[in-house]
Amino acid sequence: MSDVEKKSGRERGEEWWQTGIIEMSPGVIRLRGYEIQDLIGRVSFPAVIWLMLRGELPSEDQAALLGIALGAAVDHGPQAPSIAIARMAATCGVGINSAMASAINVLGDVHGGAGEQALSFYGDIALAIDGGTALGEAVSARLDRFFAGEKGYVPGLGHRFHPVDPRAPRLLELTREFAARGVINGRFADIAEAIEAEVARRKGKRIPLNIDGATAVIYGELGFPPPLTRGLFVLSRSVGILAHAWEQSQQSERNKGPLPREWLWAYTGTPPRPFPGEGEAGE
Fold it and tell me: Rounded to 5 degrees, what are φ and ψ at 34?
């Protein structure tokens, strides 16, 4: 008889969804070992996010820097697909949770995933530096591989609306301030700026860091792995999604599509034609 077969039904049930995140029983809620009542009123929301994901409480400075990154990416207006979807869903009469879920579900590789891609890119360079390669050489080698075998834009650079993303310089400035105080070491900021400089040298024009690249710097400095960067972006953008879904739900418009009803799409299919057999002689 196997060990699994020897266990009682209760033991099997308790192990089915075993977790190191939360302990809960009647009258007891503990997050990572901390009583919830001890956390309430003493720990900020960014600090709770850190605790849930990392298992330990951050320092006040670490929580503050995480909150800065989360706050920077909350919204980018109804032209952003996720925000537009939330608003359209709200006009269809669904609940606010459905509107939010509809929006969050489109935060994928193209819309919402660039931060994860940027941090992975930075991580490749950081690994080369740890192996003894100089910063400039590591950046150049990684860009060589990117331009030789990968498609699209260098992750974390450029913006389709902003010549310079107004969020990125401020985030880098704050990252440098936290590094100067010893909260972080600043290596990912160095890497991001070196990438920006090398791409500018190769292309003959500057393609500035964007919000995804700048928040990836902070998440990397704070020790978050790349996949969590996407999840943190979802948490951040959910604030804007909620705000827009709520605002739209307070308006009277119904079944609002992506364009005003007097603007129709461009039809590119077959021109009008008769149904086979209609109008033929002898019919």
Answer: -90, 135
